[in-house]
Prior knowledge:
Oligomer: heterodimer
Number of strands of chain B: 0
Mean pLDDT of chain A: 84
CATH architecture of chain B: Orthogonal Bundle
CATH superfamily of the largest domain in chain A: Nitrogenase molybdenum iron protein domain
CATH topology of the largest domain in chain A: Rossmann fold
Helix content of chain B: over 70%
Shape of chain B: globular
CATH topology of chain B: ABC transporter involved in vitamin B12 uptake, BtuC
Order of helices and strands of chain A: HHEEEHEHEHEHHEEEHEEHEHHEHHH
Strand order of the largest sheet of chain A: 4-3-5-6
Shape of chain A: globular
Strand content of chain A: 5-15%
CATH class of chain B: Mainly Alpha
Structural class of chain A: alpha/beta
Strand content of chain B: under 5%
Amino acid sequence: MTDAILKVVGILGDFFVRSPTRFAPGTARCLTAFLVLAACFGCDRSGDDRTSVEAPRIVVTDDTGYRIELREAPARVVSIAPNVTEIMFAIGADKKLVGVTDICDFPPEATQKPKIGNFVNPDLEKIVAREPDLVIGSGTFHPVLGRLRDLGVSVLSFNPTTIDELLVMIEKMGVVMECEAPARELTTSLTTEIESVRSDLPTGDRVKVFVEIWHDPLMTAGAGSFVNDLVETAGGDNIAASIRNHYFEISQEHVLDANPDIILAAYMEKDVSAREMILNRETWRTVSAVASGRVYDDIDPDLLLRPSVRAVHTVKELAERFYPERFGEQSK
Amino acid sequence: MKNPSSKRAKKTALSLLVLLLLWALVVVLSSTIGPADISFGQCISVLCSRMPWVSAENVPEVHETIIFRVRLPRILMASLVGASLAVAGAVFQGLLRNPLAEPYILGVSSGAAVGATVAMVVGLATVAGGFGFVFVPALAFLGALVAMVAAYQLAKIGRTVPVHTLILAGVVVNAFFSAVVMFIVSRAGPQLHGIMFWLMGNLEPVAGTAMLARFVVPLVVVGFILIALYCRDLNVLAFGEESAVQLGMNAGAVKRVLFVSASLITGVVVAMSGMIGFVGLVVPHSVRMIVGADHRSLIPTAAIAGASFLIVADTVARVASVPVGAVTALIGCPFFAYLLRTRKRVMNV
Lengths: 332, 349
């Protein structure tokens, strides 16, 4: 290695010192440069041999295919997604939580935890400063996660797009936190809840649902989004489900053409209600949901878009709005 | 007796020394600034703890991690990228004999971004074990080269590249490649959310320091060496191709090597850190005022000054939590406007 460097330096020196006026032949110079490249590629062969002394007790693979092996349950955990924070509390592992994002607002106790930046762009330095054994992310891909792994921090990244995947995530988190029993209990009760809604659903035609994620530009959620699975589980037919993308812009034309029976507004505006706004759209008068007034904005967007425990309870809420004749009577 | 050449060498050496000291100072200062709650004194004691003649006394491990493994890698990355962009800018300005030439303005950065985005979206980065990663800078280099050639061919009139046609060519190339990136990203789905952040300029070495050492540094070093070896030729070219040919230089070949080298370092750093503009404009022009237009002085000083410049810009970006590309643009655009106004008079554009 050092020989190669010395040789290169020698050749370089030759060019600068020996031939001040003449132009050295181009090929020789290119050769020099690529010699350096070869030397650099040659080095850095430090392979790390990972011979673990003890067999790991906890082995979990996340949704990106990354596997962590831990000899003991992590004592300090940083959550970089609000749904992870909610699940940590739900399975009783909240005492281990030493960092959350700015938007982790549920349960209210979560806001008392130290902050590590926002959800979209968490701050690497603030995360490291919390000295975590484990960092758990969810949803969007964070470049930060790769850096954390580089620093030797265990990282898990979940991306549940269906209720089933969410249940798997909860159980995996139970395994990592050594809260398996409460996690299993939770998923069992959630499964029961979903099954009871499912058994009450009508067998005939399903209502057509348009999920309005945002109004300007008009955005919706397709297959591959969590809210799509909530709607489908509650017996609705998402009019954008044929599009294999999560959240995207959609043209009005598409909505008018599909003529949804129900519109769900998954956002809140400060001054006007989303429902009023949609009902007052001139061009949407012919849409059956607008004509019949079945436009809903009364479900907290977090309950629709955040893949967490509370979202599963939303399925019943949705079913009540989709099929009031079946679920309305039951609730009385 | 003093000849002008040794005088230049002396001045260059002095400037290099001063700039190196300045860079060291900037590195130290920048490593004491960040969102984590570590005081200036604590930072200095952490930094000193690694020095052989100072005894390390109860330095918390987490502070060490933050400074040596979180802040310093990013600072070194900023140095590498800043130096590369400044050198690329200086080379483009010399080659095209045009003061407004710069990787970002020419559209070379957007071309590189297209290449890198394609490599990431198609998943080339993850094939063939760790070595598939080399596709990202490689395709970025290809994209940079294509954009460079396109801008050059569009802009040149005869053998010269006038300011106004260059800017127009840059606008067109930039618009086209930016549109291609937007198209790819919008089709890519959720896992590539991070790409948007990366595009705006992000100096966090997200690929990992091992990847940087293995793929990025060698490629950039090769580009630097090639450019260093051709500095003298660049001087001659800057006087015009005719004089170069009269001196017995194979002007076409030299130009090709320089275009390729500058595109190489641009492509590689864009693949790592996204599109950071105006570094190649602000730094070479500022340095030229001090060391003059001789590329043998200009290139090395621009490299070191570029490193310091981008560290400062990135420190602002880190503290304010904005993309570093926005910071360099805020500094660079007024500078660009100033150059455009002054050169307009001189060059009679």
